Amino acid sequence: MSDLNIGASPSETGPWLSNEKQRVLLVSAEPWARNVLSLISQCSEKNIEVTHAIDGAQGLYYMSQSIYSGSPFQLLVLTSPLAQIDVQGCIEALRAIERGLNRPPYPCLVCTADKTPPDFMARYPQTLHLRAPNSTQAASMVSAGILQVIYTLQTYQKSGEHIIQKDLQLNLTEESS
Questions:
Q1: Comparison of pLDDT for 155 and 85, the residue scoring more
Q2: What is the per-residue pLDDT for 103?
């Protein structure tokens, strides 16, 4: 568990709700993808670690390695159109790895936002499928998307922790009565 300073002003805590490092895997063969790493490092006060995979095989390696080591990525970002990646094939392979490790699937925040309850969003790593143009603005758009999703996930985690604390307090109160 990370220490949360709920009463702190945004200027004291920055845009992030915790100091815990967030891990992101960016799978993209686009020429601008390396710029995402530098933009994130400039904007995130070193709270976000982005690993870049240039193709599906490398992405699968990083993903399975992170799950095996016990520190899975909180966010998987797949971009399309991709020059060297079949997005559907990559997703299916990731699902196979997750099933093999008895892990829940990584739901896409864009595709399943209305169907996914907030407590599920807070517990499991997420996927973000982005259609980014092959232009000079693509890196900043993808970086902004990553930052927004990480912030949203941390908000869900914060509300989930708050609900758990209330439930524990209620149970303790009932037991003492």
A1: 155
A2: 54
